[in-house]
Amino acid sequence: MTTPGTTPPPARNATATAVPGATPASAALHTTRAHSFNAAAAQYAANRPSYPPALLDALEEYAGHPLAGARVVDVGAGTGIATARLHARGAAVIAVEPGAGMAAEFRRTLPDVPLVRGNGNALPLADHSADLLTYAQAWHWTDPALAIPEALRVLRPGGTLALWWNTEALDVPWIAAAAQRVDRHFDLGLSAEKRDLGPGTADPAGRLGLTRRTIRWSRRVPLDTHLANLASHSVFLTDTEERRAAFLADERRHLLAVFPDGTVEEAYDVVLLLATTPTTPPAA
Length: 284
Prior knowledge:
The chain has helices at residues 24-35, 41-47, 53-63, 81-88, 100-109, 144-154, 173-186, 190-195, 199-202, 223-231, 234-237, 241-258; strands spanning 71-75, 92-96, 115-116, 130-136, 155-168, 211-222, 263-276. The chain is of the alpha/beta class. The chain has a seven-stranded mixed β-sheet. The radius of gyration is 19 Å and the shape is globular.
């Protein structure tokens, strides 16, 4: 979707600017977490949950057209979990990913899907070239002050912006208890951050007019897969090996008390934020 003969904006890795108002220390931690996935790309691809068909149905309903044949850009594509779903629906997908490790895993699993290096703060794509721009588990690594103008630049008039996250279903008792253990381990309000995902946090200036939908789904996985999924999150990847191993061993004991057969029923709420670009592009 680049335009021949033009020079796209420079691709930038996640930087401290992704956390407006952050202290230097917290910005540095954010950057470290953003880059942590590259060394664990295979673990991420093998254990992270995918997305339910109802999510893709919701995208088609909101956009008012099928994904089949649509020009879709999946930003922060990672190992291609969301890209694969979009591609399977017949979308003409280009993936954008900043990380070398994640990009290598993507190319291994989806060799026929175009992939360019870059991120949402500076998309290496032509103006008004996409029908749909998606960010699966990725918008929080961008700086909205940069990413929103870029999204509006790349989307065609009347195009759709879709941001979504798989979040734990915290009304399920065992999941709420597990989330509290993670919060205590890191002394962070991670579960509260997930509850607060919405238009106000994704678009603090209110430029997009985002609407929110929630889609509940679940999967049954072996306990080892559940723990490997948990360990693939950035807070664990940037923890010390000793602390991570101790937590996961303790978590295994907790979960075997709930799931003695070793099969975990994970329940998720996909938080989906949607916006439509103006049908007439702004004057230059």
